[in-house]
Amino acid sequence: MPAPAQASQTIVLSTIQRLPISTNLQTGLADRIAIEAFHRIGIQAIIKKIPARRALRDANAGLHDGDLARIAGVTRTYPNLLPVPEITWVAEIVAFSKNQQITTPDWTSLEEHRISYIRGWVVFENNLPDTPMVDKVATPEALFKMLKMDRADLALYEKDGIRAAQSTAKY
After folding, report:
1. Edge-to-edge strand list for the sheet holding 66-67
2. What is the pLDDT of residues 55-101, one digit of tens each?
3. Residue ranges of the alpha helices (H) in the chain?
4. DSSP-based three-state secondary structure for 21
């Protein structure tokens, strides 16, 4: 008798990440880890890039199966997400500025500056002091354009991600 046909399972994960963590070809560090981990248990992983806030809301609402490479503690705001207790990547969050005299030893030191960051990055929403001088943007390119146009003193971003932003923008 022929073996019974078995439907392959697919899981859809969203991500906000860019190089070197995720790429459109799903060859980034987190892409490869997730795809291989799910492959080993017989599940095909598909990774879709969508904006940060929407990625979390959609995963929390069950519109897709999860969100790739997020900060610990995100489940306080999105209780339907279950953290996977494996560290695949550690982000170094930094402040970029055109002014070399600005120092940022802690979160409270940011309150006197005009700040820009990518909308939906929970690490900033949870840690920034309550100040009206914050602009949230949609992309890394927009983030660094704020600096270039002197509309922000500081652009908050992930250190390794700057290479991807620089490769696609003309600063």
Report:
1. 43-49, 9-15, 66-67
2. 999 999 999 999 988 888 889 889 999 998 888 778 889 999 999 99
3. 29-40, 52-61, 122-127, 140-148, 162-168
4. coil
The verdict on pTM exceeding 0.85 is no
* Pair of tokens at residue 89: 């990547």
How many CB atoms are closer than 10 A to CB 138? 13
Strands of the 115-118 sheet, one edge to the other: 93-96, 154-158, 115-118, 134-137
109 near 103, Cβ under 8 Å?
Answer: yes
Beta strands in the chain (DSSP E): 9-15, 43-49, 66-67, 93-96, 115-118, 134-137, 154-158
Give yes or no for a contact between 74 and 40, defined as CB atoms under 8 angstroms apart.
Answer: no
User: Residue 56 contacts by C-beta under 8 Å, 6 or more apart in sequence?
Assistant: 67, 70, 74, 77, 78, 81, 120, 122
Confidence of residue 169 (pLDDT cuts 50, 70, 90): low
Dihedral over Cα of 98, 96, 24, 50: its sign: negative
